[in-house]
Design goal:
The protein is α+β, with helices and mostly antiparallel strands and about 160 residues long. The protein contains five helices and nine strands. The protein has helices at about 15-20, 25-35, 75-90, 105-115, 125-130, and strands at about 1-5, 35-40, 45-55, 60-65, 95-100, 115-120, 135, 140, 145-150. Strands 1-2-3-4-5-9-6 form a seven-stranded mixed beta sheet, with helices on both faces. A two-stranded antiparallel sheet has the order 7-8. The chain is globular, with a radius of gyration of 15 Å. Bound molecules: coenzyme A.
């Protein structure tokens, strides 16, 4: 498997992008303004995607992360996050951020295992920004949990 930047003019993996974010409008805005990397199998099959967007100041945010359902649970999500962190560090960003829903239990586990810490909660984010109610793990997704990782060498995380 290799992780590579989506080429200019190449069709983005919409099925994957929409798996992570049900709003096509938001996903296309992040794609236009951000950096998109895909995880590709040796047989050139797209297995995963990550989109990073400068968040102002010295921070960059992971705006979209998804792995194709049959390929989930094999470490590809972890590799895409590690790639994003490495890229952010190399580019000189001081922090990397990610936001997820209060109902995204597995994602909260994954991000904390990768080194992110919960820094804030945006109450009612999903109620205000998504027209359809979202449920995961039997939980109504209402609030956005914001997580951050410090990339400087003195990270005491
Ligand atoms: N409790 C503890 N750890 C958990 C967990 C739980 N409930 N659920 C997942 N994890 C851990 C796994 O144990 C593993 O860590 P480990 O290797 O240290 O054990 C890690 O999280 C999962 O890693 P990985 O196999 O790399 O994940 P993945 O390739 O399946 O990708 C997603 C993860 C979230 C990207 C993928 O499931 C996905 O695309 N989901 C749908 C889209 C989505 O929700 N995107 C995120 C939007 S915020």
């Amino acid at each position: 498997m290799e992780i590579r930047r989506l080429k200019q003019g190449e069709q983005p993996p919409w099925d994957l992008l929409l798996l992570a974010d049900p709003s096509q409008d938001m996903a296309s805005q992040y794609l236009e303004e951000g950096l998109c990397y895909v995880a590709e199998s040796d047989a050139s099959e797209t297995l995963g995607v990550i989109v990073l967007l400068p968040a102002g100041g010295h921070s960059i945010e992971i705006k979209n992360l998804a792995v194709a359902e049959p390929a989930q649970g094999k470490g590809i999500g972890k590799s895409l996050i590690a790639h994003g962190i490495q890229l952010a560090r190399k580019t000189g960003y001081k922090t990397i951020e990610i936001g997820t829903g209060n109902s995204s239990i597995n994602q909260l586990a994954l991000y904390q295992k990768a080194g992110f810490r919960i820094t804030s909660i945006i109450q009612d984010f999903f109620l205000s920004n998504y027209p359809e109610p979202i449920y995961e793990n039997g939980i109504h997704c209402r609030d956005m949990i914001r997580l951050t990782m410090c990339l400087s060498n003195d990270n005491k995380g």
